[in-house]
Amino acid sequence: MMEEIGRSALVIVDVQVDFCPGGSLAVAEGDSVVPVINSFSHLFSYVVATRDWHPEKHGSFASSHAGKLPFEQGDVYGITQTLWPDHCVQGTRGAEFHPGLNQKPIRCILHKGTNHRVDSYSAFFENDKKTSTGLEYLLKGLGYSTLFFCGIATDVCVYYSVLDALRLGFRVFLIEDACKGVDLPPGSVKKAVKDMEREGASIVRSSDLRV
User: Fold this and answer.
1) What is the CATH number for 162?
2) How many structural domains comprise the chain?
3) Which pLDDT score, from 0 to 100, does residue 77 have?
């Protein structure tokens, strides 16, 4: 596994203050992934970290839709999706990486969800499924064909990033214990992991990376 890691890139998805306890869109025990990720991130030759970086009044915020509450479904400029509490607004503390995350191994920071008209769950495409973030071309241009994923949330942004990576032809590993999910409705995380595995992702644990 160590030889595999040396030829692979790590993608850390959205380990941000607002997705951790105390944040505006907190995932239960989201901060627990931080020491796990810190234990292996330095092993990879290239590390990308994504973060939601929304403008104020982003179209995915429930507050931008009259009469809508967070977690209800809504129309975001023609795309039906979950409407969220205001979160990860550009320049705010909530948009920053969790303060405990070791940022030294990170070589590239990818901001997503910057267009107020469209959300971006995946690290590779915005939610219109057409607009590329450019990450595919960066990683392939650097010669990486194998990617490892971790971060928040297992059943949202990690999930869509993994599925897109597989569709783009990457070999994919999900580091399961280095991810935390929303799990709404209950069982969503388990289903997401099964879906990723069925589509071709290999499910590993952080302990496997140090063997």
Assistant:
1) 3.40.50.850
2) 1
3) 92
The confidence score (pLDDT) of residue 184 equals 84
Summarize pLDDT for 67-77 with one digit per residue, the tens. 999 999 999 99
Domain that holds residue 133: 2-210
pLDDT at residue number 123: 98
Q: Count the Cβ atoms, other than its own, within 10 Å of residue 139.
A: 24
Active site residues: 14, 112, 157
List of the chain residues with pLDDT < 50: none
CA–CA gap between residue 2 and residue 122 (Å, rounded): 27
What's the confidence (pLDDT) of residue 4?
A: 76
3-state secondary structure the chain: CHHHHHCCEEEEECCEHHHCCCCCCCCCCHHHHHHHHHCCHHHCCEEEEEEECECCCCCCEHHHCCCCCCCCEEEECCEEEECECCCCECCCHHHCECCCCCCCCCCEEEEECCCCCCCCCCCCECCCCCCECCHHHHHHHCCCCEEEEEEECCCCHHHHHHHHHHHCCCEEEEEEEEEECCCCCCCHHHHHHHHHHHHCCEEECHHHHHC
